[in-house]
Design a protein that fits this description.
Elements (H helix, E strand, L loop, with lengths): L22 H28 L2 H16 L5 H16 L7 E2 H18 L18 E2 L5 H7 L1
Helix pairs in contact: 2-3, 2-4, 3-4
């Protein structure tokens, strides 16, 4: 290259593709990668906020109480709690989930809430109709159920 600003082939310096891409495409690629990383961080932050710490601590306290009394339901409570955490952290990351998986999550939630609720509190949860082919947004109904209890 020459110091005058032109390469030997007569083209201006600075207009050569970077790694086979034009400078504009390279900038777009970097901006796109940055925006994707920002989106992932925001989604993860939102996901973490969906795990209600109050619920988690109450659940663990209830399970602890079951272990003290050597309840036969302790293992089931731990399994339900684990599946709920897995659902919130992984499966709910999608745009839509099956209504059946959402119902399973709600049933686990209600089971764990029964640990801390007194016998005076009755929870009646019924599902009717065919739910096998219905897709919904994840965690759509849980806020309503949390507020109802």
């Amino acid at each position: 290259m020459q110091a005058t600003g032109k390469a030997r082939d007569g083209k201006k310096k600075g207009h050569r593709p970077i790694c086979g891409r034009s400078p504009i495409i390279s900038v777009k690629h970097r901006v796109t990668r940055y925006l994707i990383s920002v989106r992932i961080k925001a989604e993860f932050s939102a996901l973490k906020s969906q795990i209600n710490p109050h619920f988690l601590f109450n659940t663990l306290k209830g399970i602890y109480g079951q272990t003290i009394t050597r309840s036969d339901q302790t293992a089931d409570s731990v399994a339900k709690s684990s599946s709920m955490m897995r659902y919130v952290l992984t499966e709910s990351d999608t745009e839509k989930v099956s209504l059946e998986s959402e119902i399973a999550y709600i049933k686990s939630y209600l089971h764990l809430q029964q640990i801390r609720l007194t016998e005076k509190t009755k929870v009646d949860f019924k599902v009717s109709g065919d739910t096998s082919s219905v897709q919904i947004h994840p965690l759509l109904f849980i806020s309503f159920i949390e507020n109802a209890l």
